[in-house]
Amino acid sequence: MPRVPARAPPPGRTMSVTPLTPAPVFRGRIGRDPRSGHYAVPRRYRLHLSPGHDACLGIAVVHALLGLDEICPVTFLDPVPDCPDGGHSALRPLYEASAHHYRGPAVAPVLSDSWSGRIVSTHARDITRDLARCFPSAAGPQLYPCGAEGETEAVEELCARSADPQALPEVLDVLERRLRAHSHVLGDRLTAADVEVWVALVRHDTPQRAAAHPALWSHVRRLSAHPAFGRHLPGRPA
């Protein structure tokens, strides 16, 4: 099977936050089921991320926080899909190898397996959880702390509601109350919940919202100044 070329983003190219067509859901997991054969082996897996997709933005931040450049390389696709259906021709061989007679769009995010030449997962939250669980960083943050699973999922659902303009004010109010009480969304340490909030809200940053929710927007802007976050924003150095 032709291999998807491994490409780094060209100089000056960064992750943006314009949504693309949602990916079909493949939900293999690394290290979850021995029968799947998806063992947690460094350099076996590759991420394929597209600038402009919020799910890709979150994965890129988690990948950077964990320092996984050598363990799980990333291929950055062109920011504008080159297929009429919103897909990427570079991903077509992976989709066709993974689903018989596949005719849908070949879109990101994709976690692929170099051993089989097939897709493991296109489900962003599964991907970030598996990266953090299977390839933890001794020096990096504990993104999914034990005992906080329910709170993390609640924040994920809250952030999903932020896409609805009518629900956004309530979402901002809830997060403002959290961040008035703590330095981070789930307490006093950086977790995946902070990544979720940043990805959902960074594009909504305006002076008016910052004035109405000062603790929340101070947190979002502080995260933007962190290299693992800010380097994926338009206009920031890669």
UniProtKB/TrEMBL annotation:
Keywords: Transferase
GO cellular component: cytoplasm
GO MF terms, alphabetically ordered: glutathione transferase activity
InterPro entries for the chain: Glutathione-S-Trfase_C-like, Glutathione-S-Trfase_C_sf, GST_Omega/GSH
Organism of derivation: Streptomyces sp. W112
Name this protein carries in UniProt: Glutathione S-transferase
Region of interest (Disordered), residue spans: 1-34
Span of domain GST C-terminal: 105-238
Superkingdom, natural source: Bacteria
